[in-house]
Design a protein that fits this description.
Elements lengths: L1 E5 L6 H7 L3 H4 L11 H9 L6 H12 L6 H11 L4 E7 L8 H21 L3 E7 L11 E6 L2 E6 L17 H15 L5 H13 L4 H13 L5 E4 L3 H4 L3 H9 L1 H17 L12 E8 L2 E7 L5 E2 L6 E2 L1 H10 L4 E3 L4 H8 L2 E6 L1 H7 L3 H6 L7 E3 L3 E5 H10 L3 H7 L2 H10 L5 H26 L4 H44 L12 H8 L3 H6 L9 E6 L2
Parallel strand pairs: 2-3, 2-12, 3-6, 12-13, 14-15
Antiparallel strand pairs: 1-15, 4-5, 7-8, 7-11, 8-9, 9-10
Helix pairs in contact: 4-5, 7-8, 8-9, 11-13, 19-21, 20-21
C-alpha cells in the first residue's frame, strides 16, 4: 500500500479557507485544531463542566449491545464513565449499505484521532460515531451508486415513508432489501471475496428492523473490534438523557436564534455565503407525531407552533413536553451541536466540508451557554486505486494528479487520434478533391456532347461522393473497433477515480471496495497513519 497527498480545490470558499488555515476563517472557531496545545487547552476546559456520564454510558451499553458488542466496545464506553474520560465525536446519516465511502472515512478518522489524542494527552479518549437518526431526507440515504457496463447507475431502495419521517423510523421491507443487495453485488462482479461478503451483508440486513439498525449492524461489524461506540440521535432511549437540555433550549430559544443569525451575518460580512438558511422565528427544534417530523416556530406571544398553527404549545406546555416526552422532540443543525456538547465530553469534532461551513455560524450559540466550540478537525479524505490503474495512467502519459483534477477527456481524444493513420483526414480530403476535379472534366465533356446529360452528371457526382463517404465511414468504424478496448478502459478508470465528476468518496460504496480489495479494506485504512492536515490522500493498493 502506498499513500501520498494531493491538494484538491475545495468548492466551498469558507471550508477552503479553513483548510488553508486562513486566520479569518479560523477566527470563527474557539480553537485552531492545528495548534500544538489545542487538545490540552480543550481538555482543561472540559474539566470545568459536568456530564451525565452514568446515564450516557448506561444508554451506550444498551444500544451497542444490540449489535456486535465486545470487550473493546465495553472498554471504550468505560472510558466515558471515567471522570477524566473524553470523546472524539463525528457522525453521518444512516445510509443504505453505509452510504458512500466518506461515511467509512469519517469512522476511520474518529478512531485514528481518538487514538492519537489519547497517546498525546495520556487520558482515556473514546471514539463515538453519532448516527444522525433524526435526519429525515431519506432520498439522500436510500440508494447506492454502482459502476455497471461503463456507466454510473443509481440503485434506490423503494420506500413508503413520507419526507418528514426520520431515518430511525424508516422500516425496512426485508425481502426488497435482500433483493436489492443481491442486485448491487451482481453489479460489483464476482471476486474471491464476494460470497462471504455478500452473506455477511444479507445476514445484517435480516437482523434489522429499520435503516438505522442495518447501518449500525454494518458499522459495528466493521469497527466494533476497534472500539468504535455507536449512538443513535433518533433513539427514544437516548432522548431520555435530554429533558433538562431541551428545556434550556426552550428557555433561551430566542437568544439561540439571534446568536445563530449573528453568526450568519458575520460570515456574510467577511464575504462568505450563508451555510444554513436563517428563518424568522425558527426554534431549531422539531416535533414528532406519528413518525412525522414538524419544524416548530416561535410566534409573537412566545409560544411554539408549527407553521400552519395546527401544533401549538405555550412555554409551560413545551417544558412539560420536554420533561415528560423528550422522544417527541429533536434538534436541528443549530441545536444538535449544543446537545452533543452537553451530553458528551467532546475533545474534538470530526467534520466533513459542509459541517465545517455550518459550524462556523455557531460560535456565539456555544458562548451563550458559557461553552466553547470543540476543535473542529477535518475528516480524512481518500481516493483509492490499485497498481493496475496507476500503470494504465503511466502508459497513457498522464499523472494521477492530472487525472483526478482534470478527468480523462484528453486521454480519450489522444487514444482516438493516435490510432488514426498519419494524415488520415488530409489524404481523404485530397483524394475527394482530385476525384471531383476529374469528374468536373468528365461533366464538361458530357455537356459538350449533349446538354441533356447535365442531370446525369449531377446524379453521378452525388453517387460518387456517397461512395467515398461510405468508404470513409467504414475506415473510421474499423479504427473505432481498434480503439474500443482502450477507450472502455479509460471510461472505467474515470468512473473509479471521479465518478460523475465528483470525488470517489462521495459516490462509490464501501462494499465495492471490499469486494475488490478484500474485507480487510477498512483495516488497511486504519493502518495507513495519515496526517490530519485537511489534505486529500491517494492510496494505491495491490490489485
Amino acid at each position: 500500500m502506498k499513500i501520498k497527498e494531493l491538494k484538491i480545490p475545495e468548492k466551498q470558499l469558507f471550508t477552503a479557507d479553513y483548510l488553508e488555515n486562513n486566520p479569518i476563517a479560523v477566527s470563527f472557531f474557539d480553537y485552531d485544531y492545528k495548534s500544538r496545545d489545542a487538545l490540552r487547552r480543550r481538555q482543561n476546559e472540559l474539566l470545568q463542566h459536568a456530564f451525565p456520564r452514568e446515564q450516557l454510558t448506561a444508554y451506550l451499553t444498551r444500544f451497542n449491545q444490540k449489535f456486535y458488542y465486545n470487550e473493546k466496545t465495553a472498554e471504550s464506553i468505560a472510558k466515558l464513565r471515567n471522570p477524566n474520560g473524553l470523546a472524539v465525536v463525528g457522525g453521518q446519516q444512516a445510509g443504505f449499505l453505509t452510504g458512500p465511502l466518506l461515511t467509512i472515512y469519517k469512522a476511520v478518522s474518529i478512531l485514528l484521532y481518538a487514538n492519537q489524542a489519547e497517546a498525546e494527552l495520556g487520558t482515556p479518549v473514546a471514539p463515538v460515531f453519532w448516527i444522525a437518526g433524526e435526519d429525515h431526507d431519506l432520498d439522500e440515504i436510500n440508494h447506492v451508486f454502482v459502476r455497471e457496463n461503463g456507466v454510473l447507475k443509481k440503485k434506490p431502495l423503494r420506500h413508503t415513508s413520507t419526507s418528514q419521517s426520520p431515518a430511525s423510523s424508516f422500516k425496512l421491507d426485508l425481502a426488497e432489501v435482500d433483493k436489492l443487495i443481491v442486485e448491487i453485488f451482481r453489479s460489483f462482479g464476482e471476486t474471491p471475496y464476494t460470497k462471504k461478503l455478500l452473506n455477511s451483508v444479507r445476514e445484517d440486513a435480516a437482523k434489522s428492523t429499520t435503516l438505522v439498525d442495518f447501518f449500525a449492524f454494518s458499522l459495528s461489524r466493521l469497527f466494533a473490534a476497534e472500539g468504535l461506540i455507536l449512538l443513535d440521535s433518533g433513539d427514544p432511549d437516548f432522548k431520555k438523557i435530554q429533558p433538562s437540555y431541551l428545556a434550556l433550549i426552550a428557555e433561551k430559544n430566542a437568544a439561540i436564534d439571534k446568536a445563530f443569525t449573528d453568526g450568519i451575518e458575520e460570515l456574510a460580512s467577511r464575504g462568505y455565503a450563508a451555510p444554513i438558511e436563517a428563518q424568522q422565528g425558527n426554534t431549531h427544534l422539531f416535533y414528532y407525531e406519528k413518525d412525522k417530523r414538524t419544524l416548530l416556530y416561535r410566534n409573537g406571544e412566545g409560544d411554539f407552533s408549527s407553521k400552519d398553527g395546527e401544533i401549538s404549545f405555550n412555554t409551560h406546555e413545551f417544558k412539560e413536553l420536554a420533561e415528560g416526552s423528550p422522544e417527541k422532540l429533536s434538534n436541528n443543525v443549530v441545536t444538535r451541536p449544543l446537545m452533543q456538547e452537553w451530553i458528551l465530553p467532546v475533545l474534538s469534532f470530526i467534520a466533513g466540508p459542509g459541517e465545517i461551513a455550518y459550524w462556523a455560524s455557531l460560535k456565539k450559540v456555544f458562548h451563550l451557554f458559557g461553552r466553547k466550540m470543540p476543535p473542529v478537525v477535518p475528516r480524512l479524505s481518500f481516493t483509492v486505486i490499485d497498481q493496475k490503474a496507476e500503470d494504465l495512467l503511466s502508459e497513457w502519459g498522464i499523472s494521477l494528479e492530472n487525472a483526478l483534477l482534470n478527468g480523462l477527456d484528453t486521454v480519450r481524444v489522444e487514444l482516438a487520434n493516435n490510432n488514426k493513420p498519419e494524415h488520415f483526414d488530409a489524404i481523404i480530403n485530397d483524394a475527394t478533391k482530385q476525384i471531383m476535379e476529374a469528374h468536373a472534366n468528365l461533366t464538361d465533356l458530357a455537356l459538350s456532347i449533349n446538354g441533356d446529360l447535365e442531370r446525369l452528371g449531377i446524379y453521378n457526382k452525388e453517387r460518387i461522393l456517397r461512395e467515398l463517404k461510405y468508404l470513409e465511414n467504414k475506415m473510421e468504424h474499423r479504427l473505432r473497433k481498434k480503439v474500443k478496448l482502450p477507450l472502455a478502459e479509460a471510461n472505467e478508470l474515470e468512473l473509479l477515480l471521479k465518478p460523475d465528476g465528483r470525488l470517489q468518496e462521495r459516490v462509490l460504496s464501501l462494499y465495492e471496495m471490499m469486494n475488490r480489495y478484500g474485507s480487510d479494506f477498512p483495516s488497511l485504512l486504519l493502518k495507513s497513519e495519515p496526517a490530519f492536515n485537511g489534505v486529500h490522500k491517494i492510496i494505491t493498493l495491490h490489485s
